[in-house]
Amino acid sequence: CMVGIFPIVYYSLLLGLGLPVNVLTAVALSRLATRTKKSSYWYLLALTTSDILTQVFIIFVGFILQTAILARAVPSAFIHTVNVLEFTANHASIWVTVLLTMDRYVALCHPLRYRAVSYPQRTRKIIAAVFAVALATGIPFYWWLDVWRDADPPTALDRVLKWMHCVTIYFLPCSIFLATNSIIICKLKRQRRSGGGRSHLSKTTALLLAVTTIFIVLWAPRTIVMICHLYVVSVRRDWRMHLALDIANMVAMLNTTLNFFLYCFVSQTFRRTVGEVLRAHLRHSPRP
């Protein structure tokens, strides 16, 4: 690693802060999903769950345990299996966000149809299907080459996997985000001009726009570096590429921790529910 011990400290802090915060978020969202029966809360709960899996498999197992503690002195089968779990969690997180985007699009642009098709049982089935597809798309990455060790030019399989990675986790979802969010914004502007806008819908839309914008910004560096690694120079042959990948990974993983603070900033209902969860925990915790 080109930046010394800093990534280990950074990932440890990110895990130490992000994991408890995401668990708290999951508990609060599960209460809201059960109480309100709204599909948007189920999608946010699924997003939080996938963020927790990302923190466990990528940050803890991949970066802290495998790289820092074990110094990559582990069987290759273990590394490849972890690759599958990492990419599965990554794909689930991103494509659940796509589901949330489509849910808000249908709710705003096709409200009558939304009332007919949006109910908890159907939403949970869709989420389960996305996690199953995420696992299926993660399996090919068992053969993902270690960019930190591989000094040879990328093979044909390596090129296919890296382009598949970039398209699956960035180019395709970002295209959906940009197209859908543009339609939502135009629809809201027309509603506001005609006096038909609703504040709670605007808050939900603001939350969606913030989540997708943060993702687009934080994952852009990793995508760019990955393409440069394919066509410019390998990580092992150029310290600048190694440094760029270190920083890009750290920036991308920040995305797994920010949503809690975003929800608190936008939603009073979420803040109130978090308060209820914390007060209930304090009441039931043993006193000295």
TrEMBL record:
It is found in: Cell membrane. Pfam families: 7tm_1. The chain crosses the membrane at residues 6-29, 41-74, 126-145, 167-186, 207-232, 247-266. One of its GO terms (molecular function) is G protein-coupled receptor activity. PROSITE patterns: G_PROTEIN_RECEP_F1_2. The keyword Transcription regulation does not apply. GO terms for cellular component: plasma membrane. It is a multi-pass membrane protein. Residues 21-263 form the G-protein coupled receptors family 1 profile domain. It comes from the Eukaryota. PANTHER family: G-PROTEIN COUPLED RECEPTOR 142-RELATED, G_PROTEIN_RECEP_F1_2 DOMAIN-CONTAINING PROTEIN. This is Putative G-protein coupled receptor 142. The lineage of its organism: Eukaryota, Metazoa, Chordata, Craniata, Vertebrata.
